Structures are given as C-alpha cells and as structure tokens.
Amino acid sequence: MLNKMGESFKIMRKSRGITLSEATGEEFSESMLSRFENGQSEMSAQKLFACLDNIYLDIEEYNLLVREDEPTDFSTLQKNIHHFYNPYNEIELEKLAKKELDKIKIDGREQYHRLNNILIKARIKSVNNNYFISDDLIEYLKNYLFSMVNWANYELTLFSETIHLFEPNAFLNYCQEMLHRSDFYKRLSYNSAIIQTILINGVFYSVEKNRLEDALILIETIKQNFSQTRDAYLKIVFMIAKGYYLTKFDKNKGIFLIKKGINIFKDLGYEEISTYYYNEFKNIID
User: Fold this and answer.
1) Predicted confidence band at 2 (pLDDT cuts at 50, 70, 90)?
2) Percentage of residues in the chain having pLDDT higher than 90
3) How far apart (Å, rounded) are the C-alpha atoms in residues 52 and 23?
4) pLDDT digit string (tens) for 245-275?
5) For the HTH-type transcriptional regulator Rgg C-terminal domain, which residue ranges apply (predicted)?
6) Helices 212-226 and 232-246 meet at what angle, rounded to 10?
7) In terms of C-beta density within 10 A (0-12 exposed, 13-18 middle, 19 or more buried), how is residue 78 classed?
8) Containing domain of residue 24, as a range?
9) What is the torsional sign of CA 243, 245, 250, 251?
10) Of 14, 160, 180, 284, which residue is least crowded by CB atoms under 10 Å?
C-alpha cells in the first residue's frame, strides 16, 4: 500500500508539471517527498494533505487512485449482498450473514462483523417480513449507532439499510441524531445522498405507519437542509414522497404529484424506476 500511495502521488504530480519543491510548498525537504514517492518511507497525514493541496488533488480522488481495483472489505460485502438480493436469494444471503460471524474468529473484529450480520438480515427482512430478527440484535444496532459521536459513511449506510427495524418513535429520534452526528461528513456528496435517501424513505415509512406529524417533520427537514440539491433522482423521489403525504389531506393534489414524478422518470427513460413507483402506488392513483 505504501508503494501505491507514493506512486499514485508521483504520477499526478508529474502529469501536472509540478516540481518536488512546489509539491512540498518548501515546508519540508524534497528528499523526504521523493522517498515517499518511491515507497522508501512513510509520510505524516499532515504533510500528505498539504502536498495534495499543492498539487490540487482532492483526497477522494487520491484515495481512488491508490485503491484502484482494490475495493474495501465493506464495499465488497455490499456488492455480494446486491448480487444475492437482485435477483433475491434468501439462502445465499443467510450464508453471507453467517460468514460475517465466522470472520470474528479470524480477525477478531467482533463489532464490525456483528453489525454486518445485522445489515444482511435486515435486507432479508425487507423482502420477507416474516424473517425473524431478535430484539437483542436490534438493540445492539441501536446502541452502536447511539454510541457513535460521529456518523461517517459506514454508520449512514448501516442506518439506511435498517430503518425498517426501528419503531416509528425511535426512527424519528435517530434521524435527528443522524443530522447532528453526520454534520461534518455530509459535506461529501455520497454521504449527503445517503442522508437525503434516509429522510425521504422516512417520509414513506411515516405515512405508511400513519404518523403524519413525523412525515411533515421529515419533509420540512429535507427542505431546510437539502433545498439546493442537484441530485435530480432524489428530487423526483421526494416529489413522490410529498405526494404520498398529501394524499392524506388533499387526495387529488397528492395523486397529481405522484403521477408527475412517475411520468418524469418514464419520460427520462427510466422505465424500471417508473414501473416500480407505479406498482407501489397503483392502488392510490388508479
């Protein structure tokens, strides 16, 4: 990994015609940076961040260069879950969940693998509502999330995949905690998208449970925090969610928004998404 970090930095520095001296900002020796580029020594995070600024390379872009085709353990797990989720294969998902617990004996990361086990089981339950997940596991998940002062991508993904395991009261509380605890990390676009998705799904969930005050709180929260979002997909889904909420007060207006969102997806060529939302709401809009 050290060789790859230095090599990736060197490639970008040279491609932009930046000298060793310019890359260091003359804050430390060129020889130190040269040794790092050649995989001969490490570099402190502080110096590395300064160098990245000096060659105007974003940390996310640098991380992508370093990792290339080496996905993280968690991204590999997510890929495997998706593989067995679509098309749905409950037997293989259960095997995947068991493997996570088996890994505890191998690397000792009990908390990480237990949480992954719960995430996989939550995916199963999202399709098979009769699938049993013990209260102890749900409590373990809640305690972990509540214990984390800062929610980064892992915590946001974990919450996003398990929201249907939370009772309505607890769900709203955890949404509010999420906004406070992810304040720094939501600056990253992919984290911001997860947060918006959680809140929008929360609107659907709250209306389904007939908790309309909760749904309104979530709608207003989305407006206050993400009114400037450029994510067209999320804007359209939010329109459908607002329509679903409005059907409880002004059915015609609500149906209009739901149909509008579905038709936009259809006009843009997203037939699968359009069909999905039509099937979800056909009992209301037909």
Assistant:
1) low
2) 84
3) 8
4) 999 999 999 999 999 999 999 999 999 999 9
5) 101-278
6) 150
7) middle
8) 2-67
9) positive
10) 180
3-class secondary-structure state, position 135? helix
Whether residue 95 is contained in a domain is answered as no
CB atoms within 10 A of CB 133: 15
Contact call for residues 231 and 247 (beta carbons, < 8 A): no
Residue 73's nearest CA partner among 154, 11, 184 is 154
Backbone region of residue 55 per phi and psi (left: phi > 0; alpha: psi in -120 to 50; beta: other values): alpha
Burial classification of residue 19, based on how many CB atoms lie within 10 Å of its CB (0-12 exposed, 13-18 middle, 19 or more buried):
exposed
Smallest CA-to-CA distance from 77 within 61, 58, 93, 59 is with 93
Element holding 133 (H helix, E strand): none
Domain count for the chain, please give it: 1
Q: Using alpha carbons, select from 222, 221, 248 the residue that is nearest to residue 235.
A: 222
pLDDT in tens, 196-242: 999 999 999 999 999 999 999 999 999 998 888 888 999 999 999 99
Instruction: Give me the amino acid identity at 151.
Output: W
Helices (H), 18-109: 20-24, 30-37, 45-54, 59-67, 73-85, 90-102, 104-107
Q: From CA 168, how far away is CA 189, in angstroms rounded?
A: 27
> 234 near 199, Cβ under 8 Å?
no
Query: Who's near 40: CB < 8 A, 6+ residues apart?
Result: none
pLDDT at 286: 86
